[in-house]
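ARCHIVE CARD
Drawer: 12
Card no.: 0347
Subject: one protein chain, sequence and derived structure
Cross-reference: see card 0346
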Amino acid sequence: MKTPTDLSSYVRVLKMASTPSWQEFSQVAKIAGAGIGLVGFMGFLIYVFMFVLPGGP
């Protein structure tokens, strides 16, 4: 894959990019936070099943 080295392609991408509104940012942050929380909770459950409950290693 050829990487563009001219500055005009980077400027074109920056012109197309826009700052998200507060509502859009808030929604993305909530979804990402929920995903992180879900993964953490699943890790906690695995820990409990492996080390806390009787019969663990």
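Annotation on reverse: The two ends are 48 Å apart (CA to CA). The CA atoms of residues 27 and 33 lie 10 Å apart.
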